[in-house]
Amino acid sequence: MGQGDSFFEQVYELVRGIPEGRVLTYGQVAGLLGVPQGARAVGWALHGLTSKREHRVPWHRVVAAGGCISLPAGAGGRRQRERLRAEGVGFKRGRVDLARHGLEP
DNA sequence: CAAGTGACGTAGA
DNA sequence: GTCTACGCCACTT
């Protein structure tokens, strides 16, 4: 996989640009890339990072619609929740408070 | 070239 | 509030 600009790389770059304490949804990332219906592809792109060791991509800042974590606890969902909380992101009944950490509160 | 897959999204019941 | 069904995209084999 050494392609230069695949859709995946675009996702990585965009996610990499998410400031701390900010959270985006798959649909938003896809929309920013020009493919509002590509939420699935975005999720898949991040899925590859879970197994990667050096990525520098704050994938934990990307959650499903509504701010809910779709990741299984064993796949890193647990880590995502902890990381977000460590960045000051507040949780609302198991969901991220998009109203305070969304793209533009 | 075709089919299958997956960390989604929305709508309806 | 819960669950089901369909549609969409990009990548792999």
What is the gist of this entry?
This protein has helices at 7-16, 26-33, 39-50, 77-86, 98-101; strands at residues 24-25, 62-63, 91-92, 95-96. With 105 residues, the chain is mainly α.
Plain-language structure description:
With 105 residues, the chain is mainly alpha-helical. It has 5 helices and 4 strands; from the N terminus they run αβααβαββα. The strands form 2 sheets. Strands 1-2 form a two-stranded parallel sheet. Strands 3-4 form a two-stranded antiparallel sheet. Strand 3 (91-92) and strand 4 form a beta hairpin. Helix 1 (7-16) crosses helix 2 (26-33), helix 1 (7-16) crosses helix 3 and helix 2 (26-33) packs across helix 3. The longest helix is centred in the middle third of the chain and has 12 residues, at 39-50. It is globular, with a radius of gyration of 13 Å. The relative contact order is 0.17. The model has no long low-confidence stretch (mean pLDDT 90). It binds a DNA duplex (13 and 13 nucleotides) through helix 2, helix 3 and strand 2.
Mean pLDDT: 90
Reported for the largest beta sheet, the result is: 2 strands, parallel
Helix content: 40-55%
Radius of gyration: 13 Å
Task: Tell me what portion of residues adopts beta-strand conformation.
Answer: 5-15%
